[in-house]
Amino acid sequence: MERALSNQVKDKIGQTVTIRGWAETVRKHAKVVFIDVRDRTGLVQVVCTEKLLEVANSISPESVVTITGTVTERPQSLVNVNIVSGTVELQADSITVESVAKTLPMPLNDRAVSEETRLKYRYLDLRSKKMAENIRMRHQMNQFLREELTKLDFVEVETPYISKSTPEGARDYLVPSRIQPGNFYALPQSPQQYKQLLMVAGLERYFQIARCFRDEDARGDRQPEFSQLDLELSFTSQEEILQVTESLFLGLVKKFFPEKTLTFNTIPRLTYKEVMEQYGTDKPDLRQDKTNDDELAFAFIIDFPMFEWKESEKRFDATHHPFTAPKPEWEDNFEKHPEEALALQHDFVLNGSEIAGGSVRIHRADVLERVFEFLGHNKEKIRADFGHLLEAFEYGVPPHGGIAPGLDRIYTILLKENSIRDVIAFAKAGDGRDLMMNAPSPVDDAQLKELGLKKIG
Ligand code: ASP
């Protein structure tokens, strides 16, 4: 018998159908047992009587069942408007229990359950209505972004995860090489250098939903790995980068969240100086009514200082990253007045959160070398770490720039969740642990030896 999904049975009154899914609830009465069967599209109420009472009574919640029966209309008074098949029910003829579920360690659909438990039993948490919805919405929004960028002639390119360090201001995750003992790959903090090399390669318009890995101290809403919509364009301007970003995200909101209100129909471009003076932060919450989470205030912040003073290291560091171009008037003299030099950096903020950063890049090898030198890298270190990029820039590099919206954070705000963990299928706990897989975990000495590593302490 062909399977029918929950959302199809209302159109099959009088027909015999087979539904397959999880027994979400089993309600037992003397002469009838009701089972709400859940599949990926919703719930169907199944009515079990007579010869099926015994097996129906034995079914524990969340067991997996296959049930064949006849679809009948519910009397008007028993219609349930909350479920997709609420006007009908299935009179069961046969029941197969595919797998028996033990009592679950947590109730589904109860956000009062501790997050530890939800993360440990993530595969159960993902059965809950809200999490299942978030994961599906994430897919649809990713799909929308992919389609829109493809229409704009962007090409999705996957770049390596096992790679070399790229500075984004965090620590690297290192991967020891077995074949080249004593040498390490770094997991990319972002595909920054690859996307710039793709511009040298002539792609002109690149995007990728890329995973970024940053070993940062556990801080509230951070994950060791997160997803960004990484973009890069050649022969571009800062304004064009902002326009592409604006059309993508206003389009996304219009399509998926028509009920939300926008504080600004055209996203304002504000300078770092003006927002710092006016709001004391470079990620101001510009909503008119800050209690209303259906209001969205997007803004672009531009004209950032090129450098910031790092007191702990007694040196200047790049505010964004070292590849960020100075504004043209600062190209020749940023070293002379580093605290005043401005960069072609842009941040994208939403309701007080930074949701993207990017810049127009330095495409002249001599200027890039001067930036690295100013930041305190010596010539050998520059050659060792970035020689490939500097060399590439000697073979014809177009002017280019880009941006990288953080999808986890954006989706969290749009879906009105509290934490990015609620929009990531397999999220890690606040301290970076994967509670379900139990990672990180110790490894065998033999494995360490093979990698040429030794435990100390
Ligand atoms: N690579 C940058 C980041 O991850 C984004 C960019 O400059 O495009 O923040």
Keywords, separated by commas or semicolons:
single chain, 457 residues, alpha+beta, OB fold (Dihydrolipoamide Acetyltransferase, E2P), BirA Bifunctional Protein, domain 2, 2 domains, 8-stranded mixed β-sheet, 5-stranded mixed β-barrel, 25% helix, 28% strand, elongated, binds aspartic acid
Characterize this entry briefly.
With 457 residues, the protein is of the alpha+beta class. It is built from eleven helices and 19 strands. The N and C termini lie far apart (63 Å).
What is the strand arrangement across the widest sheet?
6-9-10-19-18-17-14-12
Biggest sheet architecture = 8 strands, mixed
CATH class of the largest domain: Alpha Beta
Low-pLDDT ranges: none
Number of strands: 19
In CATH terms, the superfamily of the largest domain is Bira Bifunctional Protein, Domain 2
Instruction: Round the Cα radius of gyration to an integer and report it.
Output: 27 Å
User: Terminal Cα separation, in Å?
Assistant: 63 Å
Bound molecules: aspartic acid
3D architecture notes:
- With 457 residues, this protein is an alpha+beta fold.
- The chain has two domains: 6-99, Nucleic acid-binding proteins (OB fold (Dihydrolipoamide Acetyltransferase, E2P)), CATH 2.40.50; 127-424, Bira Bifunctional Protein, Domain 2 (BirA Bifunctional Protein, domain 2), CATH 3.30.930.10.
- It is 25% helix and 28% strand.
- It is built from eleven helices and 19 strands.
- The chain has an eight-stranded mixed beta sheet with strand order 6-9-10-19-18-17-14-12, with helices on both faces.
- A hairpin with a 2-residue loop joins strand 2 (32-39) and strand 3.
- It is elongated and about 90 Å long.
- Bound molecules: aspartic acid.
- Aspartic acid binds next to strand 18 and strand 19.
